[in-house]
Each structure stands twice: as structure tokens, then as C-alpha cells.
Amino acid sequence: MNRITIFLLIGFIINLTSYYTFSQNLSPLKNGIKLYKQGKYELSLVYLEKAYKENPMDTKLHFYIGNIYNHKKQFSKSVEFYKRGIELSKGNEKHPFLLNLARTYQSALDYKEALNTYDQLQKLTDEYPKTYLYKGMIYYNLKNKEGVVGSWETYLQKDPTSPQYQSIRKALDIIKSENFKWSKQVSKGARGEDKKIIEDNKDKKEKKAPSSEKEIKEEEDKLVNDLKEKEKQQANKEIENSVSNVKVDSEDIEVKEQPDKKEGKEFDEVER
Questions:
Q1: 270 - beta bridge partners?
Q2: How far apart are CA 143 and CA 245, in angstroms?
Q3: Could you tell me the mean pLDDT of each successive run of 10 residues in the chain, 272 residues long?
Q4: Given 179, 199, 219, 268, which is the most exposed site by the fewest CB atoms within 10 A?
Q5: Burial class of residue 25, CB neighbours in 10 A (0-12, 13-18, 19+)
């Protein structure tokens, strides 16, 4: 074993020992939050639950444990911790809990509770303009055109610099158009089938001579209606694509530090 290898091995051992000592010196809460931010949710939960047994009144514990259960898609447990956190919090400290609670209801497809919670949060603060974006997504799933337009128009007014501005604007233009119709998303190959419909109808008309002017008119009307329906489906496909660009995955939870707040009062803002 040469000297370089020996020095590298010694350095590795020293770093590992230092990290272990540092971790041992951290409280279960700090260890849990540190692991959470590294994406190690299962290990983080072990430390946070230990801290919770020591201090079940700490709202920060409710916040992070609720987030972890959200990542694990155990929404009922997530809701439980967020609600308890809201009860224990004061003033503005309730806001992040309400936001995450609403997003959890939305992920669990409990749209009624999600909308009620968003409304509650919006009455308390204007610091989360994306609540209008999320409400619009719910109304879209409920096929509530008025709700979608109202929510997304408000979102664009409150956050005109949003990177999603153009996608939302395009989606609104399509929804408000006369051609828009609620329907299932058209498959990728559907648009290419338009020509086939026309050709098939042409072939039928050529092979079978119409017996009367009435039949000719009926066939022409049917063809026009088929094409109109295809256009409506295509318009709906475009809105689906526009909406998909702004969908927020329930797993995309990140925390953003707010270093200006004192320890013990810090509440990380959750971005989904």
C-alpha cells in the first residue's frame, strides 16, 4: 500500500468520524430535518418521531412529519399532522400548514375539502398566488368552466411574472373559445385520422350511388358534423396539453430556507 493510498484512507476515516460526531451532537429534530432535505425520508422520520415523543407540541415537527407522509402518499396521516400543527400554531405560522393541507386534500382527490382550505388560506393572506392556480386545476377536473377561468385569471393578475404565465394564458384562450368542449383527451393518432374519415366517406359515395338528393344532403351533413366534432376534440386536446404543463406533482415537495427568521420560529415555505 503506497503513501497516497494510506493518506486517502486516513482522510476518509477522519471525515467519517467527524460526520458521525457532528450527527451525534445534533438533536433528533435537527438530524431529522437535515435528512429530510437530503431526500432520506424514511431515516428522517425515525429521528423526527423520536423528537416528537420528546416534544409533541413542537409545530415544526408536525410540519415535517406531515410532509414525509405526503411523500409516502399516506394522506390521512399527513392531514392529521397538518391539522394538529394548525391548532398549535399562531398567526402567520398557520399559513404553510393550510397550504400543504389543501394540497394534500387535492392529491387525495378530496376536492371539496381542498377548495374550502384554499378559500380559508386566501382570506388570511395573499402570499400564495398559486392557490388560484391549484383551484383552477380542481375546477378543470370538475369541468367547471367558470371556476377555471375565474381562478386562473386571478392567478395571472396576482403573479404576472410567473414562468407559467404563457401556458395558463393559452389554456384560458382555448377554454373560452367557442370550439372548446369537455371530453376525454384525444389520442395522438386521432388528428391523423381526419383525412381517413373524409376518404372513407368519399369511397362510400363513389361505390354506392345515392338514390336521392336527400341522401346526398344527409351524408354531407354527417361528414361536416364529424369534422366539427374532431375540431372540438382537438381543441380539448390542446387545453389538456396546456394544463399538463402546469400540473404540480404531489411528490414535488421542496423546502426553501428563510434564514432571516430566528431559530424556533422558522417555517420553511413548501413549494410543490
A1: 255
A2: 18
A3: 58 49 66 91 93 92 95 95 95 95 95 96 95 95 93 96 92 89 52 43 50 65 62 54 46 37 39 38
A4: 199
A5: exposed
